[in-house]
Write a structure and sequence with these properties.
With 69 residues, this protein is an all-alpha fold. 61% of the residues lie in helices and 0% in strands.
């Protein structure tokens, strides 16, 4: 999808418009792998992915906290 289409789909960025569970699962797996290998992990989150970056970040933090070791 184009940037403009993603922007239109997610404006006004006040809520999650579509949970992207596969991307969340992949992100959690990659962060766990990096940390397990003693690397730093940075995750960039954009409003255009799910509609509200802070809520997406909170969901990722919850998933990391709840993930099995």
């Amino acid at each position: 999808m184009t940037y403009e289409a993603a922007k239109k789909r997610t404006e006004p960025y006040t809520k999650i418009v579509e949970e992207l569970s596969e991307i969340r699962q992949d992100t959690v797996a990659l962060v766990k792998k990096a940390v397990g290998e003693k690397h730093k992990a940075y995750v960039l989150v954009n409003n255009r992915s799910e509609g509200n970056a802070p809520l997406t970040i909170q969901a990722l933090l919850n998933a990391l906290r709840d993930a099995p070791p």
